[in-house]
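sorry for the late reply, my laptop died twice this morning and i had to redo everyting from scratch. anyway the thing you sent over, i finally got around to it. pasting the sequence first so we're on the same page, its 296 residues, then the predicted structure underneath. double check i copied it right bc i was rushing
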Amino acid sequence: MKRERVFRITVMLMITAGAVFLFAGQGVRDGFLGRGGSTRGKYLQQERITVAGSTSMEKFALALSESFMEEYPSVMVNVEFIGSSAGIESMLSGSADIAASSRRLNESEKSSGAIENIAAMEAIVIITDRSNTVTSLTLEQLTGIYAGRIRSWREVGGEEQPIVVVGREAGSGTRETFEKLLGMEEQCAYANELDSNGAVMARIAATPGAVGYVSRDVLDETVQAVSLDGHAPTDRNISEGVYPLTRPLIMVTKGDIPIQKAAVQKFFSYLYSEKGRQLIESVGLMVPEPYVIHRQ
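ok and here's the structure:
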């Protein structure tokens, strides 16, 4: 079993009521204990949301939760990165309110009441180490590499160098989506199976001849992105649908959004607002069009 990485974001608004000492006859500010220094107070109930799921959505989910809590300081959001499948299971069992999934729901999950709410669009990018001379592959070549039929970069126009095939671990939404898009479910010949985008990036950067796949929003200068069928993973190519490895990022709920508790409804209202749209773009993702609540 892979090690569970749990990140907790806790922003709590604490309001104390009870005995209040009054200094120099000053009253306590309105909204907490009333006017004129009244010792009668009231608590504002803390609302809580738990989001659990995809490690590939870490950057997006953290940014969204932090921005949401700035807008709604009375709501505390916990975010747990345990993988898409585990997050969906947690949501269906009631342990989480929302599952962050980087893959589409399967029929069993849908029949259990899970609902897809598309939050953003992103690309899965093929990466190599920076010394690799191959900068473009066809989908047929990529399939051959991951099936183990193509074993040297020379076979696709590069140097005589063994190909080291790197992928994500079983249960990863990124892996499942990648394999489905290539029509290769459970057919990939991985040399290494790693548990996060960061781990894949580090392995590719440090391993001559390695090839892997990651979410586009985590790309940096330590690796190089490979074009597919002549199309680079640019905003325009993704939005126009010509880059082939594109997927939705999904916030899954048990039942439709209008029947969720108030705090969850606020969360989705913020996600689908103009501020939410700007946040999506700020973390390198694409806004689905038209930008409305998407459900399957």
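Residues 83 and 244 are 23 Å apart (CA to CA).
thats about all i looked at so far, will dig more tmrw
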